């Protein structure tokens, strides 16, 4: 565990404070207003989504791979939603059976996972057929000039906030077999220009279970 990781966890809420006030909290509230049933949130961080889950959520499972973040998350869960389950797990290797959840939540996570396609395949696997993935993610701009700026500045973004600012995340969601049902292109509040392109949306998992070939490929990768 690096000193950088510890400092990032310790200062994360402070770093996000102004962005939350300028619109990020409103994004979270709108995204999670309809969450219901059995819900999994990946990369739950310090638990900034916790206040946004409503009474229709039957069970809430939150995963986080970073031990410093996990400790802060556990403290907030004890205070705000003690019925929630918290586990240390990366998004690429979720310790749950197939078709365990109705809704999966990812907010500013798919930019930082080690293997984005694999993480999305795992989310598809643990969602029930027709289940919903809801997300807030910053991503690569459709504007070529802006995208080139993101490529030039990505090293700085990785250094400061431990993620990539230039991933084609919306395309990756579709390539993983999800059907995007709603998407709003917006800007990440209080962020540098090269980090601003953001989507808030939802996608639906296939109504049918993966084919045997798909299940074998996923199992081989885990």
Q: Which helices and strands occur, and which strands form pairs?
A:
Layout: H1 3-32, E1 37-41, E2 57-63, H2 67-80, E3 85-87, E4 101-107, H3 116-126, E5 127-138, H4 144-161, H5 169-175, E6 179-187, E7 197-204, H6 212-221
Parallel strand pairs: 1-2, 1-4, 2-3, 4-5
Antiparallel strand pairs: 5-7, 6-7
Structure description:
The chain is an alpha/beta fold. The protein has one domain: Vaccinia Virus protein VP39 (Rossmann fold), CATH 3.40.50.150. It is built from six helices and seven strands. It has helices spanning 3-32, 67-80, 116-126, 144-161, 169-175, 212-221; strands spanning 37-41, 57-63, 85-87, 101-107, 127-138, 179-187, 197-204. Strands 3-2-1-4-5-7-6 form a seven-stranded mixed β-sheet, sandwiched between helices. The protein is globular and about 45 Å long. The mean pLDDT is 92.
Distance between the termini: 23 Å
Principal-axes geometry comes out as: globular
Percent strand: 15-25%
- Helix percent reads 40-55%
Counting DSSP H or I runs of 4 or more residues, the number of helices is 6
Q: Mean pLDDT across all residues, rounded?
A: 92
Radius of gyration: 17 Å
Brief write-up:
This protein has 222 residues and is α/β, with parallel strands linked by helices. It is built from six helices and seven strands, in the order αββαββαβααββα. The protein has a seven-stranded mixed β-sheet with strand order 3-2-1-4-5-7-6, sandwiched between helices.
